[in-house]
Amino acid sequence: xxxxxxxxxxxxxxxxxxxxxxxxxxxxxxxxxxxxxxxxxxxxxxxxxxxxxxxxxxxxxxxxxxxxxxxxxxxxxxxxxxxxxxxxxxxxxxxxxxxxxxxxxxxxxxxxxxxxxxxxxxxxxxxxxxxxxxxxxxxxxxxxxxxxxxxxxxxxxxxxxxxxxxxxxxxxxxxxxxxxxxxxxxxxxxxxxxxxxxxxxxxxxxxxxxxxxxxxxxxxxxxxxxxxxxxxxxxxxxxxxxxxxxxxxxxxxxxxxxxxxxxxxxxxxxxxxxxxxxxxxxxxxxxx
Length: 288
Ligand code: AMP
Hints:
The chain is α/β, with parallel strands linked by helices. It is about 40% helix and about 20% strand.
C-alpha cells in the first residue's frame, strides 16, 4: 500500500499504535535492491507494522547532477517490497516533507562525527541527512529505525542525533549486503558500465586485504596500498580512511583503538561508490 501524505500515514499509524502495535521504519531513497530488502525483512520480523519511505531527499545532495541522475524506480520498488510481505510505503513529495513555514533544520551537536570522511568530501551532506531523518522520525514516530552498515558514518551520526535529542526510537543496524562477488549492493550500481561493475569488486578485495595486512602494515601504509590498488584505468579512489569506530577520527596505530573501521569512496567512471569494513571490534560491542 502506497501512502503519499503525512496526514494519511499518521492516521494509519495512530490506529496501529492504539492497538499496541510496534512500528519498524526503514528510510530509503528508492531504487531498491536486496540490501534494502534485508533492512525491511528485519523490520518485519521484529515489528507488527513496517513502514518504508521512498524519498530522494534534495537537501543531502551537494551536486544537482547527482540528484537529477539518481535512479527513480517506484514501480519496481513496489514489486520488490510486495514480495517481502505487507509494508506501508510512504512516498511523499518534497512539499510534504518540507512544507512552507515549518523549520526542519536540526540543531544538534554531532561531536565532530560529521566532519570526517564523507563529511569532508561532501560538504552539507550530513546536515541534509540529519534533517530528513529527524523529519521522517517526527512523522512516523517508529519503535525501531533500520539503517545499513553500508553507510557507516551515516548510522553513527543518526545514533548520535538520537542520543542527543533523546528521540524515543531504537536504531537497528543491518550488515552490508553484497553481491556474490563482494561488491556492496547500491542503488548507484545500475549506473555502472558492465566492465566497471565487474572491476568494482576491487574495492571489497582491497578492504579484505587491509584486514589481513593490518598485522604487518601501519594504517598509513594500508591506505597507501589501498589507494594504489584501486587506481585502475577509469577508477579514482577518493579516499580510504582508517578510523576509530567511535569518533571516526583517523588513527595512526592499530593498537591504541579497540574499535576500528576502514571506510572508502571510489569513483568508477562517473559513479561514486562507498564501502567499509570493520577491522577491529570489541567482543562486547553488539552492532547487529
Ligand atoms: P539509500 O536508499 O541508499 O539511502 O539507503 C537506505 C538505507 O539502506 C540506508 O540505511 C543504507 O545504509 C541501507 N543500505 C543501502 N545499501 C545497503 C547494503 N548493500 N547493505 C545494507 N544496507 C544497505
